[in-house]
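Notes from the 1:1 (GR / supervisor)

We went over the backlog. Supervisor wanted to see one worked example end to end before approving the batch request, so GR pasted a single chain during the call. The sequence is below; no edits were made to it. Supervisor asked that the structure be written out right there so they could see what the output format looks like.
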Amino acid sequence: QVQLVESGGGLVQPGGSLRLSCAASGFTFKNWAMSWYRQAPGKERELVAFISWQARTTNYADSVKGRFTISRDDVKNTVYLQMNSLKPEDTAVYYCRAGGSNYWGQGTQVTVSS
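Structure output shown during the call:
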């Protein structure tokens, strides 16, 4: 069955960095676009970053452009989100998603606070 397992979240000070990972299994990962979403308390889930199959295209929410980088390793079946210059407003649960499917990970909490 399809599994997406996020890791790498935690507590970081403003200006700090984190790298999230999402390990995928149960489907042909290299053939799928992958995305990272986030959901802050009381807010709707929003798209943060997208990467196409073969990593030919990446897109980012305006709020994270220039600070976050999405990448993928099709050998390790893993998608990453490098987050730099973190701000308190980046605090959320971060989820990965396979394409436009209903396959989601369980989420990993990112808290940016001093």
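Supervisor's comment: DSSP finds no helices and ten strands in the chain.
Batch request approved.
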